[in-house]
Structure formats: structure tokens, C-alpha cells
UniProtKB/TrEMBL annotation:
Membrane topology field: Multi-pass membrane protein
Keyword field contains Electron transport: no
Gene name, Swiss-Prot/TrEMBL: uppP
Keyword field contains Protein biosynthesis: no
The name this protein goes by in its record: Undecaprenyl-diphosphatase
The protein's role, per its UniProt record: Catalyzes the dephosphorylation of undecaprenyl diphosphate (UPP). Confers resistance to bacitracin.
Biological source species: Alsobacter metallidurans
């Protein structure tokens, strides 16, 4: 692996780690970076696979931050109905994306992975986030581990919108939770918990489908991107909840609109 490829992997890994848990769409940002900045590896199929596989770094970032809480929940499962409700809720929220994602995997990667879809989704999602940030229903739920089971399921279906690149998995989850009465912090925190099985499932599915096409050089590139995503993800996870509790999501909404509009302008000028 030469230096140029390593630098591309580092930049894309940092971009993945910083944007995965923000409601701005990591996939959309990676795709636009590849299209406009040439941050790709010259193999369209591997570029898409790389974007999925380096998410493992982001998954480990959440596990690192929430390990103690996850262990507490795990040890409480035999005796605590609330712990069981939460674990069942996360799994129930994960299932819609698992089923629909597996069925539409080819269509999503073959048709929806293009810059125009991303730019439109970024702008529309930014406008939605602005409205929800200001006009969401009065919060009734303040702890992501105590939502009703039906609410977990509905959030899971909301997450499926993120199969459109540019929508944002965390953004769809957060908006869905806030519309159902979660406060901003709880909505963001549940997006972290739901990310673990969702991203792990996407990682495993993509690896299973593409491992035969990966060679030694690919493994090196993915490893570099993974480490960069892990470090960046740790920084975001630790700071996001504090920020959104005080300031909300408006800055991320405007960022989405700015990036989407710049992307549309770039497509109009450069194609």
C-alpha cells in the first residue's frame, strides 16, 4: 500500500468517524468526497465496500464509550424487566432495516448511490431537521433505555429511510424518536444504541458478499480507514450528547443544506 492510498484511507476514515453519529449522513459525505475530491481507490465496487467496512471502527467507538452501561444492562437481564424491554426494543428496531436492507441491497448500491440523490437528500433532510428541532412535540421520554416497545419498533422503521444515501441513519432515528416524544439527548443516545446492531449487520453482510474480491492491499487500506474512523468516532460520541442537549441540531441541519447545495452546484458546473 503506497502513501497516497494510505492518506486517502485516513481522510475517508476520519470523515466516516466524524459524520457517522451526526445527523449529516456519513455515506453521503463519503460519496461526495469520492466524486468531487477524487478520494477513491479506482474501483467502484471496492469504494462502496470500503465505506461500509470501515464502519467497524465507528462501532467499536460506541462500544468503548458505552461498555460499562452495556455490561450493566446485560447483567440485569435475568432480573430486571426494564433491561429486557430495552434489549428487545433495540432488536425490534433493528429488524426492519435488516430485512429491507437485505432485500434492496442491490438496488440501493446500484441505483441510489449517486451524488444527485445524496445532494437532494441532504437538503431535504436538513430542512426537516430544522423544523423538528424547533417544533417537535413536548418531550415525554428522557431516557433512551425506557421507551415503550412500540416506540422502538416505529423508530426502527424510521431508520429505514436512511437506506437512501444522504438521509442519515442517525438523523432518521433522531427525528423519528423526537416526533414520538423523546427529548433531544435521549433521541441522540438511542441512535447510538441502534447503530451497534445496524452497522454491525451491514458490515457482516457486505463482508460476506465481497470478501472473495478483497486482496491483501484491500485489507491494509480498510485497516487504516478503520483506525481513523475509530479515533474520530470516539471524539464525536463523547461530545455529541452534551452539545445537542444545550444547542439542539440546527447547526447540523444548516451544514446538510450547505453541503447539499454546494454539491448540486458542483454537479451543474462539472457534471
Amino acid at each position: 500500500m503506497d502513501l497516497a492510498l494510505a492518506l486517502k484511507a485516513i481522510v475517508l476514515g476520519i470523515l466516516e468517524g466524524f459524520t457517522e453519529f451526526l445527523p449529516v449522513s456519513s455515506t453521503g459525505h463519503l460519496l461526495l468526497a469520492e466524486h468531487f475530491l477524487g478520494l477513491n481507490f479506482g474501483d467502484e465496487q471496492f469504494d462502496k465496500t470500503f465505506a461500509v467496512l470501515i464502519q467497524l471502527g465507528s462501532i467499536l467507538a460506541i462500544l468503548g464509550v458505552y461498555l460499562r452501561k452495556l455490561l450493566q444492562i446485560a447483567f440485569a437481564l435475568p432480573s430486571d424487566p426494564k433491561a429486557r424491554n430495552f434489549v428487545i426494543g433495540v432488536l425490534a428496531a433493528f429488524l426492519p432495516a435488516a430485512v429491507i436492507g437485505a432485500i434492496l441491497h442491490g438496488f440501493i448500491k446500484g441505483v441510489l448511490f449517486n451524488p444527485l440523490v445524496v445532494c437532494i437528500a441532504l437538503i431535504v433532510g436538513g430542512l426537516v431537521l430544522l423544523v423538528i428541532d424547533e417544533r417537535a412535540p413536548a418531550p415525554r421520554y428522557h431516557d433512551a433505555t425506557t421507551f415503550p416497545l412500540s416506540m422502538y419498533v416505529k423508530i426502527g422503521f424510521a431508520q429505514c429511510l436512511a437506506m437512501i444515501p444522504g438521509v442519515s441513519r442517525s438523523g432518521a432515528t433522531i427525528v423519528g424518536a423526537m416526533l414520538m416524544g423523546a427529548d433531544k439527548r435521549a433521541a441522540a443516545e438511542f441512535s447510538f444504541f441502534l447503530a451497534m446492531p445496524t452497522m454491525a449487520g451491514a458490515f457482516a453482510y457486505d463482508l460476506l458478499k465481497n470478501y472473495k474480491t478483497l486482496d491483501t492491499s484491500h485489507v491494509g487500506i480498510i485497516s487504516v480507514g478503520f483506525v481513523a474512523a475509530l479515533i474520530a468516532g470516539l471524539l464525536v460520541v463523547k461530545g455529541l450528547l452534551t452539545y445537542v442537549t444545550k444547542h439542539g441540531f440546527a447547526v447540523f441541519a444548516w451544514w446538510r443544506i450547505l453541503v447539499g447545495a454546494a454539491g448540486l452546484a458542483g454537479l451543474w458546473v462539472y457534471g
